[in-house]
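Input.
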Amino acid sequence: MTTLPTVAIVGRPNVGKSTLMNRVLGRREAIVEERPGVTRDRKEVVADWQGRFFVLVDTGGWSLAGDDLDDKVSRQSEQAMYAADVAVLVVDATTGVTSEDDRVADLLRRREGPTLVAVNKVDDQSRESLIWEFMSLGFGDPFPLSALHGRGSGDLLDAIVALLPPAEGEEPDDEWIGDDDLAGDALGEDADEDLISVAIVGRPNVGKSTLFNRLVGEDRSVVHDMPGTTRDSVDTVIETEVGTVRIVDTAGLRRRSRIDDGTEYYAMTRALSSIDRADIALLVIDATQGVTHQDQRLAERIDVAGCPIIIVMNKWEMLDADSRPVVERSMERKLHFLGEAPIMRISAISGRGVQRLMPLLSRSVDDYHRRVPTRQVNQVIREAQIAQAAPGGARVLYATQGAIDPPTFTLFANRRLPQTYVRYLERALREAFDLGSTPIKLRVRNRSE
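Output.
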């Protein structure tokens, strides 16, 4: 796979970094709101301009002073700027050069590689004269820009592409435009078919980002003991002992009635979209609080999406010996509809038990993609009917697996099968093919249909 160059969008809070990212991508990928601090984690997305592909990194705002959370966001921004091939410092034309702009510029001077200054909110020609104040930052001529309206974005992208190093494995004189094979590889289209996509979901402040960082092996998502730290779905692709895995850290999901601003609404929408696209979901539950009503609702939502679920009881080490059996009985009662979903008892902060997740993920995804020969399906159904016949003379005449993700079986019957008997046949298929906790679907077609 071609390793793409990286472009980091950096700057202080509320200068339009996420708006610029959305403008470059041509879609609303990053959550944008007119107040500082909405973006907190690094978000990486493949972008292209004139046939040249690169990884675009949106960062949280770098702050001169703030609380512990602000410091963590600032460190995330610094990591992104030092790792990037090209940095784009976004500033605000309406405020001029601030002390925080100067400090970010100082950090950028210490890195290797070029830096461009994008002066945002130059919405018309009358504001263009404001850009020259930013020459004092020491990065050459600034680029006037209106990220919201797209004004000047093409010139900025031309300059970015001209500074990008060749992708790893690409000769400097290679032609990018029209190179379909390289473009497909850059976007990961071929590799995506082999990726295991894992969504980490749960209520706010249950340890999702801590688990994400533990699995990824670096501090990628901002972790803080304040609910709602993650505002967007953040994903990364890692190589593991079970193959290539995409880990997606989602925002904490709350009841719709408690979502009181646009940012939380879009965060919830992204999280639900991540669930729908995932091969498997890790439902993270705070063991010290037990299974709440909201945990139940989230489990139901994941179950409806049809992807396998692994229940992750985080902070298990904080329970004493007397409390653990109580929590387990409550979990079995409140999440009974998940059937035989695996349960992992871990400590994301210390890493205890986390190493057992990957093999379990691999097996669950293999079951999710499982395809069974028609002959074997019919043999299992036939043996199940011999062991226990359906009431009223109903009988399955023929059965086949029509789809995967999840395994879906179609049963052709001579008449309507009672729902209890359908569940009996489902259990027979699950046990015969060792499908474990993987959700399977049975569709019954009557001969009259």
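Residues 29-40, 171-193, 222-233, 254-268 have pLDDT under 50 and may be disordered.
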